[in-house]
Specification:
Blueprint (H helix, E strand, L loop, with lengths): L2 E8 L1 H5 L3 H10 L3 E8 L3 H7 L9 H8 L4 E9 L1 H9 L12 H5 L8 E3 L3 H11 L10
Antiparallel strand pairs: 1-3, 1-4, 2-3
The chain binds ribavirin triphosphate and magnesium ion (MG).
Length: 142
Amino acid sequence: MSIERTLSIVKPDAVAKNVIGEIYSRFEKAGLAIVASKMKHLTQEEAEGFYAEHKERPFFGDLVAFMTSGPVVVQVLEGEGAILKNRDLMGATNPKEADAGTIRADFAESIDANAVHGSDSAASAEREIAYFFNDNEICPRG
Ligand code: RTP
Ligand code: MG
């Protein structure tokens, strides 16, 4: 395993529930460092571009509507095997199927309002980090 970076989003439902800090704490306790972070309210165009891989899926309209329904917090996580580690912390897409103790099991309401996003591969992580952050906005741990 090597040091990786991954893109994570605290979605509008989790921001509205006031659990940003609890979710950040899970990342830090698992050995992932937050090396970039910003809060923003995504525009329709930003959300559509971010989830472009799902453009043809029946849930695309609902996904974009949800992701633009309130502010999100976008962060870059860095650490040993960060991409898979973050996916493990998140749990399954549908919170009803998520393992106990995962972020989605503990904070998500439904498959739409599912608390967090995480890059699913090295290629996605590279694209998604560049989608939200310039190099000079990322502060690696020395
Ligand atoms: P994410 O991209 O947000 O981290 O979620 P994921 O990898 O676990 O799931 P993905 O397949 O990439 O789907 C992106 C988001 O679309 C919504 N979705 N709805 N109704 C459905 O069948 C369905 N499938 C996916 C979810 O909100 C999911 O997080
Ligand atoms: Mg995904």
